[in-house]
From TrEMBL:
One of its GO terms (biological process) is lipid metabolic process. It comes from Artemisia annua (Sweet wormwood). InterPro entries: AB_hydrolase_fold, Lip-like_C. The keyword Signal applies. This is Alpha/Beta hydrolase fold protein. The keyword Lipid metabolism applies. Residues 98-210, 474-541 form the Lipase-like C-terminal domain.
Length: 817
């Protein structure tokens, strides 16, 4: 670079620290009229180029204009990243595999666009997430090569043959320090790709299998542990033809089209080579040497005339996104037997009067509505050969405004790869490698990126589901209480939450013969009901190391008493943030609880801990282990269970319950029964506390508060279809709607009963539920408060367990037989 490395670094450092272009110009080594002239010129050029990109570029991965709109005109706290990308250079053998988020076309990594997050802040959901900045318009091949060196370090080598064929330099950017230099088969990665980013990951994995990186002869497909696709461009898109690609070959562009304007804008942008603009946003064609310093004026003319450059050699992203281009790629790409694959396909269309039309008009981004409509009406030109044998237009009409839904589920053409359609993530548990599990989500192409608020709770559900698959965890004490042994919380979960992997030792299990032939009945109160469901799912998933024969049938029946299946609005009233359902408000009752618990555990007074224990021994918060500074660290919220959200309240918010429920099944061989409690009634059109004298004094105010709960209007609803009034009936701690049976995000089979006798004979796989007049502590602590109702309910539960819930016909005594 003629200006010199030092000056370039000076400008890079300057741009990274300021948030406005005006301040950047003010600090440039120019002054007076010349400065004003140049600043006006550059700002006009910037506006022109970015406007062209906004108007004419394919929205295949979320167009650039959305990013600029959110950056300049919208405060997006969740989506703004200010720190530099993390380098996992000092990782040891025990570290969790990083999760690598790969952007799509017109995408960007950390540090671009003033710190805007392409993935809308999803990278904050885990400690070990990398967001590489790859060429936004470069070919899938080139981007896969860049991703390898981004992780391992070194100078990007595009390959001698490919570079000569395409007319660019063989070597590109230098990564002096790889972001995960220990990457190998023993230290694999999880990859999540949006749009074209999903195909980049597949090409990279094939390159690893083919040992295609010079100097790295030990690579293999097993360097990638899992692949998750978000609206992945596996099989191309008809959008490419609508924007200007020739349907005859899927490589060249029409003479007059939107993509030609895009091409001209990109060439001029790269030729001008304005350092702060290139730092702010880069199309990734530096290895083509198209700058005015290297190409000169005639080089610019040559590129504009289509005689040289990436658009002349078809070495850019759009040819890879045509159906023909995807066929060429897919013919060389495998689905590997040791890698886990999952795909989310998006769809913003529906069938209406026999035609495919846009669905939920108000839910589609305005820039994508027309594109959805165009793709619904696409017809392949009749005088042009079909892209493959068996192609039918109607199969490609469902779309999300950028890609066809058929293209996003899994690799289909020219050969279909193994796949399985799922409605709920839990249907693919335990996950089998070598199979593409896919689900179809109602949303447009930018549902997962840039603007978190547009997707609402669906954003968190999807990313939480992805990250949980990579970092599976849950509480395990109950299993070891029954079977015996030392509680193993799981290596990944323990590291993610910052506590010891092993806990209390049960030298003698309380039911050591527990297995499928010796099952148990479970009765859970409040959060205990959800604990049982999580345990049963773990048994089904064989999640306990050393116990490979577990199954859901180890639990014969589940009975819930005021069970917290779907969360509670009480959590927000006590101090949980309704925005995410994980963090606490700065000043609230739960903060007092947090401080009290931390001090109680830190003091570690034996007789008090024996008398009552909050259960955080595995966090090692005692004064002996943590010291004074450990106490300070916990109180400041830097460590401990409250810092990692690994305590009960985040699981009791509506969002937390949605995250749990998305992985929990109701099993066909287990009996389910639920008692929901209610201390409210309707009076003059309003929900009010009922039977004032029958409510425990400590719960009366809480019942009243929950009757009046309104979800903050400026905060996205916890799920689509949420209505405050459905959550007003309550028992002072939980909402009645939450206690009947698992309802959200998908309702489980259920049947309302008034009398227990209505469910005889009891059928497995169905939640029988009844609503009981009482507050949340009706079934516990004080038997006298419940009176005869206490005995009636528990007698009913125990009778069901002993007479009606069984998988095998009970053996009758000899004298009866």
């Amino acid at each position: 670079m003629p200006r010199g490395e030092a000056e370039y670094e000076q400008h890079s450092d300057l741009v990274s620290r300021i948030s406005s272009l005006e301040l950047t110009f003010r600090r440039m080594p120019r002054g007076g009229a010349e400065y004003e002239q140049h600043s006006d010129l550059v700002s006009r050029i910037s506006s022109l180029e970015l406007a062209q990109m906004r108007d004419y570029c394919s929205a295949v991965a979320g167009d650039l204009s959305l990013a600029l709109n959110d950056l300049f005109f919208k405060s997006n706290i969740e989506g703004t990243i200010t720190d530099n990308d993390r380098v996992l250079a000092n990782s040891d053998d025990n570290d969790l595999p990083p999760i690598v988020l790969v952007h799509g076309i017109f995408g960007f990594g950390k540090g671009r666009l003033g710190g805007l997050s392409y993935f809308a802040g999803a990278e904050k959901k885990d400690e070990r997430v990398l967001v590489p900045d790859l060429g936004s318009l470069t070919s899938i091949y080139d981007r896969a090569r860049e991703l390898f060196y981004y992780l391992k370090g070194g100078q990007v080598d595009y390959g001698e043959e490919h570079s000569k064929a395409c007319g660019h330099s063989q070597f590109g950017r230098i990564y002096e320090q790889g972001h995960y230099p220990i990457w190998d088969e023993d230290h694999p990665i999880h990859c999540v790709g949006h749009s074209a980013g999903a195909q980049v990951i597949r090409v990279l994995q094939q390159m690893l299998a083919d040992k295609a990186f010079r100097g790295y002869e030990n690579t293999s497909e097993n360097w990638i542990l899992s692949v998750t696709s978000l609206s992945g461009a596996f099989n191309g898109t008809t959008r490419a033809y609508l924007d200007g690609m020739q349907p005859e070959d899927g490589k060249s562009m029409k003479t007059i089209c939107l993509l030609q304007l895009c091409r001209i804008g990109v060439i001029i942008y790269d030729w001008m080579d304005i350092p702060f603009l290139k730092y702010y946003y880069n199309f990734g064609f530096d290895h083509y040497n198209m700058t005015w310093r290297k190409a000169g004026v005639w080089g610019l003319v040559d590129c504009l005339l289509g005689n040289s450059g990436p658009f002349a050699s078809h070495d850019w992203i759009l040819p890879d996104l045509t159906i023909q281009g995807s066929l060429r790629l897919n013919s060389h790409l495998n689905t590997f037997p040791s890698t886990y694959y999952f795909s989310y396909a998006t769809k913003r269309t529906r069938k209406f009067m026999g035609r495919i039309v846009p669905s939920n008009v108000f839910g589609i981004h305005p820039l994508l509505f027309v594109r959805v409509l165009q793709m619904c009406q696409w017809r392949h030109p009749p005088d042009v050969p079909a892209p493959f044998k068996g192609y039918r237009d109607e199969e490609w009409w469902d779309n999300d405004g950028a890609l066809n839904t058929i293209s996003m589920t899994h690799p289909r053409f020219p050969v279909e790869h193994p796949s399985r359609f799922v409605v709920q993530d839990s249907e693919c548990q335990p996950l089998q490698p070598g199979i593409w599990y896919y689900k179809v989500v109602e949303g447009d192409h930018i549902l997962f990126i840039v603007n978190r608020e547009r997707a609402g709770v669906q954003f968190d559900l999807i990313y939480d589901s992805i990250f949980e698959r990579c970092r599976k965890h849950a509480a395990r004490e109950l299993f070891y209480y029954l079977k015996g042994g030392q509680v193993d919380y799981g290596e990944e979960h323990s590291k993610a939450c910052g506590h010891s992997q092993f806990g209390r030792i049960y030298e003698q299990g309380h039911y050591p013969i527990w297995d499928e032939d010796h099952p148990i009945h479970c009765v859970g109160h409040s959060a205990g009901a959800q604990v049982i469901r999580v345990l049963q799912q773990m048994l089904a998933d064989k999640a306990f190391r050393g116990y490979e024969n577990t199954s859901e049938n180890w639990i014969l029946s589940v009975t819930s008493l005021s069970g917290a299946f779907n969360g509670t609005t009480r959590a927000y009233l006590d101090g949980m943030q309704p925005e995410d359902g994980k963090s606490m408000k700065t000043i609230c009752l739960l903060q007092l609880c947090r401080i009290g618990v931390i001090i109680y555990d830190w003091m570690d007074i034996p007789f008090l801990k024996y008398y009552y224990n909050f259960g955080f021994d595995h966090y090692n918060m005692t004064w002996r282990k943590a010291g004074v500074w450990g106490l300070v660290d916990c109180l400041l919220g830097n460590s401990g269970p409250f810092a990692s959200h690994d305590w009960i309240l985040p699981d009791l918010t509506i969002q937390g319950s949605l995250r749990l429920n998305s992985h929990l099944n109701t099993f066909p061989s287990t009996y389910y029964f639920s008692y929901a409690t209610k201390r409210t009634r309707k009076f003059m059109g309003r929900i009010v506390p009922s039977n004032v004298f029958g409510i425990h004094p400590l719960l009366f105010v809480r019942v009243l508060q929950m009757c009046q709960w309104r979800h903050p209007p400026d905060v996205p609803a916890p799920f689509k279809g949420y209505r405050d009034e459905e959550w007003w009936d309550n028992d002072g701690a939980l909402n009645t709607i939450s206690m009947t049976h698992p309802r959200f995000p998908v309702e489980h089979p259920s049947r309302f009963v008034v009398q227990d006798s209505e469910c005889q004979p009891l059928q497995p796989g169905i939640w029988y539920y009844k609503v009981v007049e009482g507050d949340h502590i009706l079934f516990i602590v004080n038997r006298e408060r419940a009176g005869v109702q206490f005995d009636l309910i528990y007698d009913s539960i125990f009778e069901r367990c002993r007479k009606h819930a069984f998988r095998k016909i009970p053996t009758m005594p000899d004298h009866v037989q």
